[in-house]
């Protein structure tokens, strides 16, 4: 089982994002504070879990967490401030939604900006080490998937239901054939050669 906490603080929040490498849709972050009694042997970095397992874990995390928050930062903002800043902004927005102010924040990855003077630590591959970051990774991924499934109905030809906006061959082929939508990130290399793309 992953470790419960990094610090000695009671209200330690884990945060992570999903959708950073996508060509379309938001970058989504979650923040989670788990009780000290929490344990779960399945919970891991969302990328290591099947979709089915993530869907089983989502309601468990949401009901057992002391508090959690999820936030989307959309493509217009990503294009304006870049994906790294947008990812950190999404994490800050998800922490804003917590009903308990965290005493300490642990962040997946190696980049973060201070949040209201609360001490924090960035942990590379933290989502495979700490339960709260893993829980945040699952919530970020499942909430983002729900959003991508919804906009799939508007533009089914990109098959976002399947690829969730990631740069699959099928997704790139659809961009070549149909151009881009309002959900695409215009600042990203949407096609490898970036030729004749009607923006």
From TrEMBL:
What compartments host this protein? Answer: Cytoplasm
Q: EC class of this enzyme?
A: hydrolase
Give a yes or no for keyword Hydrolase in this entry.
yes
- UniProt key word Cytoplasm: yes
Which Pfam families does the record match to this protein?
RNase_HII (PF01351)
Residue positions annotated to bind a divalent metal cation are 16-17, 108
What is the protein name stated in its UniProt record?
Ribonuclease HII
In its UniProt entry, the species of origin is given as Lacinutrix iliipiscaria
Organism lineage string = Bacteria, Pseudomonadati, Bacteroidota, Flavobacteriia, Flavobacteriales
């Amino acid at each position: 089982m992953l470790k419960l906490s990094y610090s000695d603080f009671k209200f330690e929040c884990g945060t992570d994002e999903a959708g950073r490498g996508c060509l379309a849709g938001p970058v989504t972050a979650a923040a989670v504070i788990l009780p000290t009694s929490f344990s779960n042997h399945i919970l891991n970095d969302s990328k290591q879990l099947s979709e089915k397992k993530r869907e089983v874990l989502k309601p468990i995390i949401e009901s057992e967490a002391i508090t959690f928050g999820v936030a989307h930062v959309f493509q217009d903002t990503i294009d304006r401030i870049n994906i790294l800043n947008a990812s950190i902004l999404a994490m800050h927005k998800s922490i804003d939604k917590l009903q308990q102010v965290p005493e300490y924040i642990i962040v997946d990855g190696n980049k973060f900006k201070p949040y209201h003077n609360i001490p924090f630590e960035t942990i590379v591959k933290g989502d495979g080490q700490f339960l709260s970051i893993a829980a945040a990774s699952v919530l970020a991924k499942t909430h983002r998937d729900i959003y991508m499934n919804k906009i799939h109905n508007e533009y089914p030809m990109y098959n976002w239901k399947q690829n969730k906006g990631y740069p699959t061959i099928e997704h790139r082929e659809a961009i070549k054939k149909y151009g881009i939508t309002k959900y695409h990130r215009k600042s990203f290399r949407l096609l490898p050669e970036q030729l004749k793309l009607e923006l």
